Fold this sequence. Notes:
By secondary structure, the chain is α+β, with helices and mostly antiparallel strands. It contains eleven helices and 14 strands. The protein has a seven-stranded mixed sheet with strand order 3-4-5-9-8-7-6, sandwiched between helices. The chain has a five-stranded antiparallel sheet with strand order 13-12-11-10-14, with no helix packed on it.
Amino acid sequence: xxxxxxxxxxxxxxxxxxxxxxxxxxxxxxxxxxxxxxxxxxxxxxxxxxxxxxxxxxxxxxxxxxxxxxxxxxxxxxxxxxxxxxxxxxxxxxxxxxxxxxxxxxxxxxxxxxxxxxxxxxxxxxxxxxxxxxxxxxxxxxxxxxxxxxxxxxxxxxxxxxxxxxxxxxxxxxxxxxxxxxxxxxxxxxxxxxxxxxxxxxxxxxxxxxxxxxxxxxxxxxxxxxxxxxxxxxxxxxxxxxxxxxxxxxxxxxxxxxxxxxxxxxxxxxxxxxxxxxxxxxxxxxxxxxxxxxxxxxxxxxxxxxxxxxxxxxxxxxxxxxxxxxxxxxxxxxxxxxxx
Length: 340
């Protein structure tokens, strides 16, 4: 992103109305240039309201990411293990950026955050939709010297770490949809993506991507609806439903808490595998005892979700038998969305 556009977003981030002349003076450029860059903000999902003769205003106030605030929120253990923390305005992908950096040494890790990703990915190559500054786009990496037997369940352990942060500090309306969706109120709040690089006998490098919604626009809801996925929901909406007069959530504070949680989870997972997380994951299980349809390639299973096995495989009861699903897509049967 150009310096002018980044400065323009910073000038409008407070959500107040700013006149064109005041913005031009602050950014030391012409009003024509301001107008051009305002139009280009649509490309990163920002909506700017233009009021003739008055000025310009963002439709939604932004709390921009702040490196110092995030570092201040890290625990001593996390800070000691962190090699690199990068913040970007616009980037292709936070996970791709980590792939460009040298793999961390044993016991250490890097973290990358971005206000907007041009190529953010969800599962199976789907695009992760998140307008500029409307959520968290975070990736961390980790090097496993010894590969845990239950490596395939890492995304489930990471989901437990995310739920710990959200349930303890923000809202109890959080669940996990196997294998890597974060859900609330029958809607999708966020998602996880795990990339593994290395040889089968180790060591391996793991990159964990976390996408979290803070604010969800009507256009984003429409885009997701066209793909047939769970409707999106934002953290601020959840918090307002619980306590309309409560304090706002800080993106920087949540970013620090999630980085702390990821370091704790990865350290514990390397030492003990998935076993310490199984019971806790089951307490967050959004699919438990619901009628589901699961698909993995040409294979399709219909039945009732019965939790997970100790290795993280989803268990589906069909005609009295338990079927295992180690990967694939799972959805609620039509008509069962609100039933348990």
